[in-house]
Amino acid sequence: MHYILYAEAGVTDDGNMRADNRISPDDTMTLPPAPFLLGSLNREPITRISGCAHPVVRGRVHVPVHTGSVDAFIKLLPPREFAVESVCEWLAREVELPMPEPLWVTVHRQRMRTVWPFGNDETQLCFGTQAFNLARPVHLGDQSRSVLAQAYGLDSLLLAKIALFDELIGNDDRHAGNLLLTPRGTVVLIDHERALGGTGLALFSTAPPPGPNQLLHRVRALSVAERATLKSPLRAFCAACTTAACRIPYTQLVNAEALHEPMRVYLESRAERLFDTLEETLGIRDLPGLNPAGFHPLAP
């Protein structure tokens, strides 16, 4: 399956680009719909962003289903990191976590000039997200819970959901640079290329496990009363994460078929442990007087 496209090849009316001319004539497989908006980076200026593990640029992306172009950040990632970003983005949106609009962007070598990590390939499909002007990093370490809730809209429930999502995808790289406050006053998550065991390890590696989940530590520090009120909605969130992990459309999200099975095994095994992680984090037994009114513990 290929979604690497030439802008000149054209775009269908519903926003799905046609397959490029490198597909074999013998390949009669019908392409499934693209999971994200498709576009092409064909407007100047294109600005490189410094301080990133892989090259990142900012530019105007032509998206056929939009009027005009979209200001976006585009990450020039190796294939495995591209797959990780795409799968994590799909999962986050499936469980309704706040994310910027994702894009799959066709980038042409001739437009990049000084940076092109794809050898002799003339085009590459890259992962992008819609940019927010004046977005600010959320500095968790030096902010009280009241400030996080009032200034950023990041209450204890959303904080705990992000922590559990990071636990699901094996992300130990959550910091101010990938938790942003938009000008609309909402928090969005970005940057998951180092998830799924990819933080300095072989991809999908579980030994050694990912580093400490700092957001879970913040949830553990909540009062007993606060943790009790979180138990019911977080159990529902864990159930949604588990369901989503079993529904990932790998054939749409990951071009390399060899990655499908290791990704599936990695995520489903972590999903199986998610309820245990929640119980360990909240530290509250299912006893009368500790659970919120009207809450009935799930059967074991």
Plain-language structure description:
The chain has nine helices and nine strands. With 300 residues, the protein is of the alpha+beta class. It folds into two domains: 124 residues; 147 residues, no CATH class. The strands form two sheets. Strands 1-3-4-6-5 form a five-stranded mixed β-barrel. The C terminus is likely disordered.
Summarize the structure.
With 300 residues, this protein is α+β, with helices and mostly antiparallel strands. It has nine helices and nine strands. The N and C termini lie far apart (42 Å).
Set out the fold topology.
Elements: E1 37-41, E2 47-49, E3 56-62, E4 69-75, H1 79-94, E5 102-108, H2 109-112, E6 123-130, E7 136-137, H3 145-152, H4 156-169, E8 179-181, E9 187-189, H5 214-220, H6 224-245, H7 250-253, H8 260-272, H9 274-282
Parallel strand pairs: 1-5
Antiparallel strand pairs: 1-3, 2-3, 3-4, 4-6, 5-6, 7-8, 8-9
Helix pairs in contact: 4-5, 4-6, 6-8, 6-9
Question: Which key features would you list for this structure?
Answer:
5-stranded mixed beta barrel; 9 strands; 2 domains; alpha+beta; 3-stranded antiparallel β-sheet; 300 residues
List unreliable stretches of 5+ residues.
Answer: 4-31, 290-300
Q: Report the sheet with the most strands, covering strand number, pairing sense and barrel closure.
A: 5 strands, mixed, barrel
Widest beta sheet: strand line-up: 1-3-4-6-5
Provide the β-strand percentage band: 15-25%
Please tell me the overall pLDDT: 81
Query: Structural class given helices, strands, pairing?
Result: alpha+beta
State the helix count: 9
Principal-axis shape equals globular
